[in-house]
From TrEMBL:
Residues 35-130 form the Stress-response A/B barrel domain. It comes from the Bacteria. Coiled coil: none annotated. SMART domains: Dabb. It holds the Pfam family Dabb. This is Stress responsive A/B Barrel Domain.
Length: 137
């Protein structure tokens, strides 16, 4: 009976130790995966060229956040396959070395200023974040 209690205590102590260490142990994994942040902006007035130009101006400013490795700003392509969504106005895709860099981007003053100065232009935005190995193949 005493042996089982001791074993149970050691198991629980081991689990507690693992829980305390796991966030630290997971940190190297967080720094290994490429992080892609893809945002689709839906302007309130999608046919307003001035609003589109303002959003593009803001995105070019946003591209200066140092944590960003690569940026692509685009519009819907002229394609006609039924699986392709083309209902957005502007697409913003940026690549980060890892999720840690993306978290830095989210709280960077340039990003916060972008939201403050330009969010009145869009009615909604859709965000797709993905992670994966830095090199495939």
């Amino acid at each position: 009976m005493e042996d089982q209690s001791r074993r149970k205590f050691l198991q629980n102590a081991g689990l507690a130790s693992l829980a305390a260490v796991s966030p630290v142990a997971a940190e190297p994994e967080r720094s290994k995966e490429l992080f892609i942040h893809h945002v689709f902006f839906y302007l309130k007035e999608p046919n307003n060229a001035q609003h589109e130009a303002q959003l593009l101006e803001g995105l070019h400013k946003l591209a200066k956040v140092p944590a960003i490795e690569y940026v692509h700003i685009g519009k819907p392509a002229v394609t006609s396959r039924p699986v392709i969504l083309k209902d957005y106005t502007i697409s913003w895709m940026c690549f980060f070395k890892n999720i840690i860099e993306e978290e830095i981007y989210q709280t960077h003053p340039i990003h916060l200023e972008f939201i403050e100065q330009y969010s009145h232009l869009w009615e909604k935005m859709v965000v797709y974040d993905s992670v994966g190995p830095k090199k495939v193949g």
